[in-house]
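Dear colleague,

Thank you for sharing your sequence with our group. We've completed the structure prediction you requested, and as agreed, I am returning the results in plain text so they can be pasted directly into your records. Please verify that the sequence below matches your submission; if there's any discrepancy, let me know and we will rerun it promptly.
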Amino acid sequence: MNIIKRSFKCLGYTLLGIICFLLVYILVSFGLSKIEVNSDIATDKKEIEVFIRTNGVHTDIVVPIKNELKDWSKEIQFQQTKSKDSLMNYLSFGWGDKGFYLETPTWSDLKASTAFNAAFGLGESAMHTTFYKKIKEGDDCVKINITKEEYLQLVRYIDSSFERNKGGNLVFIPATTYDKNDSFYEANGKYSLFYTCNTWTNSALKSANQKAAFWTNYDQGILQHYSK
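Please find the predicted structure tokens below.
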């Protein structure tokens, strides 16, 4: 009987600890996301359009496929999409947990093991890229204009997030897509409760000296700073 009582007591403390952790996590997430970093102090001409897109949970950074500073199509190839359509103008980047990306096309496909591995940084990461002909601004898509130097900083950040082989090339993940104009690549870093897909996007904006949250793990933690 004493063993049973101790077991229930231990279980109770464990559940209480989990609940307390989740409450603190939510409060910290909300609080730190409200703190805005970086200000618009650039004096150079802001001639490059960049977009922040969300699907309601996950955010992407969208950039021009090609300009005088960077030609992404040299590495993110049209031929690696189902459509192979080269008449595109924009390219989005979304970093995230590889298991979520490849094994969970819909929420109904989510496995407990996938969620556990992602939450505690036990899985690998991947970069999801999608080509677009045009981008429409709206509640789910914000446009910002940045300088050439800021764009180069953003390019460096995105580049560093890709895993590369010994030849210095991106590592394409074949036979996996959501649509006809997207593809996946191996990426650096570990997804976790403390570094999510939205944390990556937030850090990308920080790297380019754009408005961002001090820290955030959810999409509105970023977008709220562009709704003012």
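Summary note from our side: Residues 35-226 form one domain.

Kind regards,
the structure core
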